[in-house]
Structures are given as C-alpha cells and as structure tokens.
Specification:
Layout lengths: L4 E3 L5 E3 L2 H9 L4 E4 L7 E4 L11 E7 L5 H10 L4 E7 L2 E8 L2 E7 L6 H7 L5 H8 L7 H7 L5 H21 L4 E6 L14 H18 L9 E4 L9 H9 L1 E5 H8 L3 H13 L3 E4 L11 H4 L1 H21 L4 H13 L22 H11 L7 H21 L4 H15 L5
Antiparallel strand pairs: 1-2, 3-4, 5-9, 6-7, 6-9, 7-8, 10-11, 10-12
Helix pairs in contact: 2-7, 6-7, 7-10, 8-10, 9-10, 12-13, 12-15, 12-16
C-alpha cells in the first residue's frame, strides 16, 4: 500500500488515512528536508536509525531533468539489475521492467501508449476494428480479441507488443522533466506477460532520438509551450500534420496536443517542428486568450455567449472523436436536442449540432432575437442558462466514454473557456 498525505500552505502535514498516520508514526524523529525537484519531496532522518525495509522498496530516486536516464539504464543493463524503473511526468507514469539487465516489459498511463493505438499506428488494425473489440473486452485484452476475430495473426500481435514496449522505453529515456524511481521489485509481480528486448539496442535507438530532439529544441524548447495556427492547411500536409494543426488553438501546450492526438511527446514535437518550419504554426510561452472573431461579440454579449459555448461543444466532440466515438456521440446529442429535453428554454428548438459539434450560430442568434421578449428581465442570462444545460449534458455523456485523465483535462479546458465570459 502507498501511504498518502497532504501538506497545507502553512507546512502542516496531514495523513490521508489512518494507515498512513501509523506509517508516519513508525518513522517519527527529526528530518532534514533536502532540495529537490518541484514535484519531489525528500527528507533524511537525522540521526539515522538504520534497518532494512521489505521489498518492494524505492532504492533510488531523482530529478529526470538533472540526470540522463540513458546513463542510468546503461548502468542497470551492465550490472544485470532486476527490478522496475518508473518515470513520473505531466503525462502520467511510465515504467519498464528489467530482468538481469534486459527489458522484459513496460506499462504506461499515457493513452498514446495503449496497444490499441500502436496497432492503428502500425496499420495492423483499423480504428473501427479496435473500437468494436473495445466494446466487448477491456483494453488489456484487445490484442487477443483481434487475434480471435482473425484481424491479427499471432506474430503480428507479438510485433505490436514489442513496439509498444519500445515506444514506452523511448518516451522514458527522452523525458527531460519529471521524477524517476528505481524499485527493487520482482518483475513477475508487475507484468503477467513478458517480452525480452535488448536494452543496448533500445538505448542506441533512443540516443538517435535524443540527438533529433536536441535539434527540435531550437524551435520548441520544452513541452509546456503553447502552439497556435498561423495559416490554414494548403492541402499538402500529412494526416498527422493536419490533425495537430487543427488542434493548435494557442491554448494547448505541446504535451496537451500530444494527449489530444494520442501521439508521444517526441512524435508530436517532430510533427510540430515541421509545421513551424513551414510557417503553419507558432509557439509561445503564454496561452492565447479566447477572443470573439469579430467586433460584434463585444457589442452584443449574446454573440460572445454563443461563441463560447460553441467552442466548448466543439472541444467535447473533438475529445470524444479521439476515442473513436465521435459519430455515435454526435447522433445521440442531436436526438436529445431534438427531443427538447435538455433545457426548459425553447430558444434551441429545431437546432442541430453540426459535424464540428457546434450549433448554427446565425440560426441560434435569430431564434434568440425572436424569443428575447419572453426570456425575462435578463434574456442573455437565460440564453446562457440554456446553453449551459446542453453543456452539462454533453460533459456527462463524454464522461461515460473518456478515461479519467482525459475527462479531467477536458473539464479544465471547459473551465478556461467559461472564464472568458463576464458574470
């Protein structure tokens, strides 16, 4: 069990559970707080009490920005070490299991590292094949389900699993921020089905990517810069370039774009670098402020309300579409809207969501103008309430389809958009 506690603004320490309180009590004493990374707390008891801890235990931890993980993995390989290396970054946790210094498996919380995504990227299965399988089995069983359906051959599944492990390994080695932990742990306790890949071969490939990334860093210094579209596609872009350019609103960082497109940070950076070189996009340390495209929005608050909520609806649909559920989601939303059960205000009657998830702006504003006299003393507030009702319905439906991390990220972006409206 992992003990959890909170530290308040005054430095007070509060255990989250009674088990944690008991664990802390066993370690009572005076501690020296060591300077570490922002997301890492390291305390050294003084004087030391000594003693041995039971496994699994953390035997080494550090700041990924201050120590090259490639050097650490090379040492672990040469010393034939067995255990698990975990790297925690903004995108979640990734881990690789080593047995006698060789890579035997990997795991990741990043949706881009899922086996289903690897199968689609390699062209071994279509998105529809994967989505059909995921309706019947959990993500961990999708590969076997596709073999049983005849979509994959057993050797193709093995190749995809090996590629998945390789991709996770490279993402860990390329991490330039975050915290790494070396855990003294039997790898069989963590991974049920093992592969065996040469650590040295993986490292050589990772070093090549490190050199490439150093080149990209001349234009994209880190994963927290925001990316904005400078000019639209001219029909000459590759599909991955076109996808990222469409997502680049100036309010998403490189890391957030990677999560939205289900790509690794390295692949996203590589694609964005090409977009920057071609003059299609720009990067900034500051998020762009959502602004109405024409001056009418400032003159008429109803326009700003409609455009803000339309931007939210589009965000929700885009997030669901990345899970391969966009068409079904949009159809269900239009059925609910047509039934006039989403809101008590009739201003939305007869409207339907477009392919991009937005309501037709002109028709909606015309309907609002006709109904304005019936919407009380604050008609814009009534319009906002109606659109808000629809928003909460869409967010609820999306929450049933999205992983918790994607759902939380969507809620954060929605909150940002809403903050642009004056109360």
């Amino acid at each position: 069990m992992t003990s959890r506690f909170s530290i308040d603004a005054k430095g007070g320490l509060k255990p989250d559970a009674s088990e944690t309180a008991a664990e802390l009590a066993q370690r009572s004493g005076h501690y020296l707080l060591l300077p570490t990374a922002a997301d890492l707390l390291c305390a050294l008891r003084t004087p030391l009490h000594g003693g041995r801890a039971a496994t699994p235990r953390v035997v080494l931890l550090g700041d990924a920005s201050g120590f090259p993980l490639s050097d650490l993995i090379a040492f672990l390989s040469q010393s034939r070490w067995s255990g698990v290396l975990r790297v925690h970054t903004a995108g979640g946790e990734r881990s690789v299991a080593l047995k006698d210094g060789e890579v035997r498996g990997a795991a990741s919380e990043d949706p881009a590292d899922r086996l289903s995504e690897v199968l689609v990227r390699l062209g071994l299965a279509t998105r529809s094949h994967v989505d059909e399988a995921l309706r019947e089995v959990p993500p961990s069983k999708v590969g076997r389900a596709l073999v049983d359906r005849g979509v994959l051959q057993a050797h193709q599944l093995w190749a995809a699993v090996s590629q998945q492990v390789s991709d996770i390994f490279h993402a860990m080695v390329l991490a330039r921020e975050g915290v790494f932990l070396l855990v003294d742990q039997d790898v069989d306790e963590r991974l049920q089905s093992n592969v065996q890949l040469s650590t040295q071969s993986l490292l050589m490939d990772a070093i090549r990517k490190i050199d490439e990334l150093a080149h990209f860093r001349g234009r994209i210094p880190h994963g927290r810069v925001y990316v904005a579209k400078k000019r639209p596609s001219d029909g000459k872009l590759h599909p991955d370039e076109d996808l990222l350019l469409g997502l680049a609103t100036g309010r998403r960082t490189v890391l957030e774009l990677a999560a939205a497109a289900h790509l690794s940070e390295f692949e996203t950076t590589k694609v964005l670098f090409r977009l920057l070189e071609g003059g299609y996009a720009s990067v900034s340390e500051v998020s762009a402020v959502e602004a109405p495209p024409v001056a009418a929005a400032a003159a008429d608050p109803a326009v700003a309300v409609v455009r803000t909520f339309n931007a939210i609806y589009a965000e929700v649909l885009a997030e669901v579409a990345h899970e391969g559920r966009g068409a079904d989601f949009l159809q269900a939303a239009n059925v609910a809207l047509a039934g006039q059960s989403l809101t008590a205000f009739g201003v939305l009657a007869g409207l339907q969501f477009g392919p991009d998830g937005r309501l037709p702006e002109r028709q909606l504003l015309e309907a609002f103008a006709r109904a304005r006299a019936t919407l009380g003393s604050e008609p814009v507030a009534s319009l906002r309430a109606a659109l808000s009702d629809v928003m909460f319905f869409l967010l609820f439906q999306a929450g049933e389809l999205l992983e918790s991390r994607a759902d939380e990220e969507l809620a954060r972006r929605v909150k940002e958009l809403l903050s642009g409206l004056q109360e």
